[in-house]
Amino acid sequence: MPLPDSTTDKTSDAAMSRRSFLRGSAALGGLTALAASLSPLRELHDFTNTEQFLQKYYKELTPDEMTKVLKRIEGEVEKQYGVRPHVRDLRPMDGVEYVYCLNLTRCIGCRKCVHACVNENNQSRNPEIQYIRVLKMPHGSMDVEKGDHTYDAKQVPEKGFFYMPIQCQQCHNPPCVKVCPVNATWQEKDGITVIDYDWCIGCRYCEAACPYWARRFNWTKPEIPKERLNSNMAYLGNRPRKQGVMEKCHFCIQRTRAGRYPACLEVCPVGARKFGNILDPESEVSYILREKRVFIQLKEEMGTSPRFFYYFDK
Amino acid sequence: METLPPSAPASKIARTNIFLAGLTLGFLALAALFTKNLWGHLPTKQTIPIVDKKFLETTPWRQTYADLVKAKEDLSDYDCYGCHEKKKPPTIRYDANQKIVVPKEHSDVVMGHGSHDRNNLCYNCHNEQNLATLQIRDGTEVKFDNIPPLCGSCHGPTYRDWEAGAHGRTSGFWDRSKGEITRLSCANCHNPHSPRIPTREPAPGPHSLRATTTVHESAESSH
After folding, report:
1. Does A267 fall in a domain?
2. Partner residue opposite B199 with nearest CB, options A31, A118, A156
3. Using the beta-carbon criterion (under 8 Å), do A271 and B60 form an inter-chain contact?
4. A68 occurs within a structural domain
5. How many domains does chain A have?
């Protein structure tokens, strides 16, 4: 339909022509749409700083650079939580390979390990991130599909059930490492699969690849009460994470690589948890694997070959 | 406005302008909504109470005689000859069902040792010749601060596991070159008179958003 030829000329005397008005509206609309599409950026409160952005890959950092990085992290944590932490970069020891053994006959399902872990490793309290899930399982089956980790009993253990805590199995052949597109997670020579939280891009491939549901994603900025912050930290361990990165059990690197037992073990009221160096024939775990009835490995058919063993007394 | 040709009546242009002005206002309103977040409400966070510190406690739930000595606590319970007479073993009474009758002075003792509580002879462990000590059935005297050999005299395999560090909690340092290891004693976890570990209150379970009834919200805010 042809426009009336005189319309545009005549109305140009008025404040605004229809064309320029339309153009203006379209531009405004476009800008609004752009603003709307950028609006999630407003939720990035602690957007990465230049220093962190330019930081090299963990394995390429020289000792001097590492010291600077640890200082930066200490400063950031102090600024945020008001506590000056002690952040270390603990490397694996020679002649040490960690193994965890868990006694299914003893575990009573009290979940103390879950919370000791959260407390030790500075996990988010809301939304909750927990590395350990305690499955309540009916007697006579090892089928984890029958397990329930949301049980809410007044008293444990309940009759007819046993309890099976599951956490990162620290596999010999970890599927999570294979799928990481940026090598932000890898297996160290002492058997611990670690994550560089500064290198992780949050794609969650590892979470999907893990057959044990051991990896957790920080959907929001982690919430840690200041008074519960653990100031003994390790770079690859329990330093506070950012929004958008993965985390998981790392056998309490900040403790175990300093010779101590993990936090979940030290809180266990029944001594169901055992940890140590499998290369030392005198260690508790060597004794258990030699002498006790060991349920080889969870989901053995996956070929992951975990370093986490379940065993029985009777 | 009167000069406009009849093909574009004033009312029509005014309507267009009003429409476009309305559109602009609409866009502005949308922009305000987006920037002020008046529309898209973020998934509401549930409140999760901070876990009670009692669940983080690492001290064992029972104190042994050795712990009491160390902590310089009241040891009057172990002063047997405050009431009993020396060299006169107290007699043990049983009811018709062969259940031990615990005298009211020892009402804190609940007997439940062995299947069907059959380990009900006090002198299986207590020394009738010297009540301040214990004894193994072969007559070996055992002090209150070192009971594992006594328990191990019946519970052999468990004792073997305990010695190897496989039974009961060990805490401290797995790497002996870096620090000490602390091994708990039998009575730190087991009440010798009724050794079965009692049931207890579990720590709170995960506040799984999946477990709540609002499944749709959970799908957005968690995995």
Report:
1. no
2. A156
3. no
4. no
5. 1
